[in-house]
């Protein structure tokens, strides 16, 4: 009888372990990405730095929906919190979940900025973290960057495989960003202000960088991805739009020159963010 009781206890113990395992597995399966701030620890100049990332999702995310992710990178001297209200019309309605990293020393390291952080490694770790959530659409990850942040998204498109499309706003490729090794076509929607007095739209030296012209920047991406050499030119609300089609893997490269805009393009072109999301969601 004692031996039988012993076997019964073992059976109960095994059943209990199995139930706990199922419970843990179920909890992992339903790991939902919600509005919050997370930190990514990174070694910078010999010190461990906790870098904040704002995440903006619908108030009550639907666990049955896999949401696209849209990263947004601020300009030099900027703050990731500014993206919350800028893109709230999309995150509140569930169009996508916004991912807003903070640049170290309020900048993204392109070579001559205050930060010396390895921002590509930082984003790689961040993406790995986000993909552990079950309501994330890993096939639809996009990135917007403004000014110095535009240089960052160009860098990410050149050096990583994460993004289906990027939107560099108020800046363009610089000579130090080598796109020649990128074999995965990425759709590009580049937007520049025709009256920009901060970043030289016609190319030149500024802030320690050598900028290509805005048009040449788009053209370089188009050549890299095997697009048609001659773009289709149209006018959108009085602004010149150049679309390089026929790219590999159905990618698209578009350059929009907002004629009356300076460096703050959204102030002159109020539909900017909607236009960018329309571009992304069409891919």
The count of domains is 2
Helix content: 25-40%
Strand content: 25-35%
CATH class of the largest domain: Alpha Beta
Strand order of the largest sheet: 1-2-4-3-5-6-7-12-11-10
Ranges with pLDDT <50 over ≥5 residues?
1-28
* Number of DSSP strand runs: 12
Radius of gyration: 23 Å
Number of helical segments with 4 or more residues: 8
Instruction: State the CATH superfamily name of the largest domain.
Output: Alpha/Beta hydrolase fold, catalytic domain
Based on the coordinates given, report the CATH architecture of the largest domain.
3-Layer(aba) Sandwich
Termini Cα gap: 69 Å
Order of helices and strands: HEEEHHEHEHEEEEHEEEHH
Largest sheet entry: 10 strands, mixed
Q: How would you classify the helix and strand content by structural class?
A: alpha/beta
Shape: globular
Could you please say which CATH topology of the largest domain applies here? Answer: Rossmann fold
Mean pLDDT: 92
For the structure shown, list the relevant keywords:
283 residues; alpha/beta; Rossmann fold; ten-stranded mixed β-sheet; two-stranded antiparallel ribbon; 8 helices; 12 strands
